[in-house]
Here is the input.
Amino acid sequence: MKVLKTAADVGIVGYGAYIPRYRIKDAEIARVWGRTRVPIKEKAVAGPDEDTVTMSVEASKYALKRAMIDPKEIGAVFIGTESPSYAVKPSATIIAEAIGDSEKILAVDMEFACRAGNTAMQNVIGLVASGMINYGLAIGADVAQGRPGDELEFTAASGAAAFIIGKGKRSLAIFEGSSSYATDTPDFWRREGEYYPRHFYRFTGAPAYFKHIIEAGKMLMNELGLKPSDFNYVVFHQPNIKFPLRACKMLGFSAEQIKPGLLVDLIGNTYAGSSLIGLAATLDIAKPGERILVISFGSGAGSDAFSIVVTELIEEKRRRAPLVSELINRKKYIDYAFYAKFRGKIRTR
Amino acid sequence: MRKVFVIGTGLTKIGEHWDRSLRDLITEAILAAVDDAAVEVKNIEAIYIGNMSSGYLQGQEHLGSLVATWLGIPGVAACKIEAACASGGAAFHQAYLAVASGQYDCVIASGVEKMTDAVTSDVTSALIMADDQEYVAYTGATFVGLNALVYRHYMEKYGVKQEKIAAFSVHCHKYAKYNPYAQFRREVTLEEVLRSPMIADPIHLLEAAPIGDGAAAVMLCSEDFLNKLKLEKKVEVIASTLATDAFSLYDREDITTLRATRIAAEKAYRMAKVSPKDIDVLEVHDAFSILGVIHLEDLGFAKKGEGWKLVEEGELEVDGSIPTNLFGGLKARGHPVGATGIYQIVEVAWQLQGKASKCQVDNAELGLAQSVGGVGGTVVINILKRVR
Here is the structure.
């Protein structure tokens, strides 16, 4: 596979993130399960009336505010998630109707663990570049679940990010290129009928997360002739604090470059939302002309890397919707009992 | 009994071999040993494979036929030898007997363990199978937990502070740095060891051998075989003994000593006509820091309760009176259970051949390797001698 480079400029016309207001501290989870060391500070928890679709709609509405377009102009809605509201019945159609899109659209759900939102984005770039659509909406969202007491319960969180992609001149950031890398790697999975996913401990590190992120990142930089110092910011998928920081070092980036988009300590791992909310937070502070590298990771396993250059339009569009930092600061702490109730960990039927 | 020689060695690096299977590792090690011996695979008459948990962790038993097939020599004698963590040492013992008895002229002693395929809880379950399921394991005791009892009792009985014992880990890491096959090639400080997470009080994470994958092999042969193929004599096996002790700790008079070590060592010293002071290099089975210390005592290098002094006084260093675990020991070289005993033999053989690079002990002539199964239920002692 080659690096995706479009003949005409394609970029981000609008973006929006959504983080539910409820938070549970890792210390609270640790209190219940008798642990002393925890991977992050706290994580975002979807409320009892929230799910992947509602969060996606919130994020998409914010993206529309920044895009300043009529929702009917959107020709494709792709959502990447591993926790759709229905096991069988698309989420993309519910979201498209809720935001007032036309019915003459391409709408589909995509699934590739934590990477599907980025893969949705890559597909939409292709559709816009080909001229098949003028605008497309790519969403990454999850209400992630960890088995109670499992390592993943300390990080599995809820959140969404939406990106409206269109031709260059109305874009607040332009895609320079993107690369993908995928192998059959069983590091994390959930089989039909199982309630919680399973993971393979240390196997999720070197042969899964690091291998794919590093390969996708190197592939893109080589092809575009760019090196780490050419980027102002870097955003990785964030399953915990340790992994993205190590990947940052391995690829030759600095702690300063990763800082604006590294949110896992405050919101947890929002799975398909993770690297995309990190990208939204980075766009919140980026200046025109600055370059951002985003690399996703989805178990199973694969990564997509994007090189993005911010344009002048960022300044006028940024304040039209809430900043990620504002969504993070809007929070209400809950204890483990309410968390268990909200996340369906108490079976009532 | 005939004389037996070690003429070839082969190793894989110990680590997390995510992309390689049990058979990949063992065949690589055996083929490397065959190459090193400058003979051919078809010269092999028998293969002994030390392995503890392939049945539980890979769902694969019958390793003898498997390995013979994958080496392309089905037809040879081959079987798995299991004695918990002493499986590697026991495989070597069987290979030695096979040549010494006159039955075979050229055999492989090998070992392999693939532990990172499994989740840690399964590895913990596999390891406690080294103790009594009906009387010990059913209580929920883990292998680390049993060693923790030994550790605590030792500190109490002899009034020794933990930092004196934990220093054994620091020693092993210091030398693993030079071993390209080691799992952890970095030094650790005593503070790091004592600050590392507690896994079974008083054992810290950095006082315990890690989980890893690896395989090792050596080729043993008779004098006739060497003469026939005009091969050089390298290292002679001058003693190989195996002893058992009461299966579980509750049945022992003193849990701060491994009686099986004392029995096997006494026999080995007699068989080799040497005493502890003649040994130039030593490889002990330090599955936990406390065991490293206890082994030094039981093998006759220190009085009971004083093994830690050898660490403190620098006697285990490359220029000390009894250079020990100069490839990192179980703690830092790693402990792929069934392969460990063979790694030790290879390391001793390299010392005797002057192939230990930065960790080379000057003029090493005699080396001893101790392989321990369970908390001392089985101990194998092998003494090797340089051939001038």
Summary: Residues 22-37 of chain B form the longest helix (16 residues). The two ends of chain B are 21 Å apart (CA to CA). The interface with chain A takes residues 16, 18-19, 116, 119-120, 197 of chain B (CB under 8 Å). Chain B has a mean pLDDT of 97.
